[in-house]
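Let's study today's protein:

:::
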Amino acid sequence: MEYILYVLLFVLLIIFRKDIGKNPFSPRNLTILIWSVVMILYHFQDDLYPLTDTFFICLFLWLIGFLITNQKPKFDNPVFALERINKKVLICYFLIAVITVPLYCKAYLNAIGGFSINMFFDLRQSAVNGEVQLGIYSYVPPLCKGILFIELFRFSSKTKYSFILALLLNLLCALTIMEKGYLVLIFASCIFFMYQKNIITKRNIMIYSFLFLFFLVFFNSLRREDFSTREVGDTSSFISLYVVSPSVAFTQLTENSSQNFGINTFRFFYAVGKSLGLTNEVVSQWHEPVFVPVRTNVFTVMQPYFQDFGYIGVFIFSLINGFIMSYVYRKYKESGGVIYTCLYVYILHFLIIQFFQEGFFVSLSSTLQIFILISLVSFELKALKE
């Protein structure tokens, strides 16, 4: 099965090479590129356990699903409709964020006892273990992300200061929980819009991505427990741990191992049910680590589907993910409107980290919050008069 998967990836790269060069951010092309890179990097390290047919079969099904549901835009019109931005609503967003972001940061700092030599490690542990009772402040990161997407959407020389403020607010949130995924979202969003607005080229994207990778290596070193032994480390060990190891960790999972129907995939609905007193159990977003032999607790995008529904689940949800993501991408390409553009930028983050973990369904609450925020800022007040 391993060689069949390699042949499939090679054939896809050949067939879609022109479209990949023209539309590198499309769901299908990103999926092909991401997994091709993972499989190539796997052969440049010898520290991890070997991949098994469990992974190869699931990835084969995942790729096929994205191919089947791919929706090609009828035309390419990424002209951003700036007149759809309701500036009054956007100002309200900024006011709320400026007030609540410091309180959000303070909640985490209070939980770890303030500044210390192991502050970064303690912050990450608090975020992972869910030790901080945020209450209403849990809505702060989605708000800041929505503001960033909107500011990138309307970015120009006249809006550069509001963009800088949006960027700083998001960096504060990301550093407060020491989350690499949040930093990837910020970086990918900026790169996407700068490329679409012809500010940077594909060559710039490769250079910036390479530099960002080195920054993540340094960022990861800050989260180690013993400050005295912290070292930036080498890039190869970082890649081995954070790019390839989730695929190897996936082979440690057992299909159809969930105790309740879709409890990993439909975590959002179980959480809503628990708040209404309809259900009792909600699984954590953070999983028990495995050793492959490096320690990791992420299992690629296919993890919840495989544990809940087995191989058929991986295939069915590849169809669902592929359909939703390519639909939003197609609408963004055809309309250039703020809702579909910003929503796709958020989805783009999940596409990039699909080698790492699932986020679209598991974090459906944040997705819906951002969708509502973007929809409100594009709401035309004149519609009420009509």
In short: Residues 303-335 form the longest helix (33 residues). The two ends are 61 Å apart (CA to CA). The chain has 16 helices and two strands.
